[in-house]
Amino acid sequence: MSVYVGNLSYEVTQEALTNVFSEYGEVKRVQIPTDRETGRVRGFAFVEMNTSEEETAAIEALDGAEWMGRDLKVNKAKPKEERGGGGRSGYGGGRNRY
After folding, report:
1. Are 27 and 21 in contact (CB under 8 A)?
2. 92: DSSP letter
3. pLDDT at 91 > cutoff 60
4. pTM, entire model
5. Would you give the distance in Å from CA 62 to the centre of its chain?
6. How far apart are CA 62 and CA 71, in angstroms?
7. In the chain, is it the N or the C terminus that has fewer CB atoms within a 10 Å radius of its CB?
8. What value, to the nearest 5°, has the Cα angle with vertex 56 and ends 55 and 59?
């Protein structure tokens, strides 16, 4: 399980997030998604910690806390939902035959 961290500054780094969360336990992984086109941080991240107890401690301490000028939104991450495969379903693809 991992922790969702929202309302992040666009200046956030993996190192900074690791430092903040390591106060509550061992950080296994930090993932900061970026925009495909601009490469800019999207304003949220996922932090995976060693135990669920450490995750709970971090959530309780950091949810609503101000960090880098923003009030953090921190909670258990929800499982990624499967998206439909490949968009534009129902359209024949290719060029117009008419």
Report:
1. yes
2. -
3. no
4. 0.80
5. 15
6. 9
7. C
8. 85
Q: What are residue 24's phi and psi, to 5 degrees? A: -110, 0
| pLDDT value at 47 more than 80 | yes
Q: For residue 56, what are its two tokens?
A: 């709970």
Q: Which tokens in the block code for residue 53?
A: 């107890």
User: Are 63 and 20 spatial neighbours (Cβ–Cβ below 8 Å)?
Assistant: no
Residue 19, pLDDT score? 97
Tell me the C-alpha distance between 7 and 30, whole Å: 16
Distance of CA 20 to the CA centre of its chain: 15
Spatial distance between the Cα atoms of 81 and 98, rounded to a whole number of angstroms: 38
Cβ atoms within 10 A of the Cβ of 25, count?
17
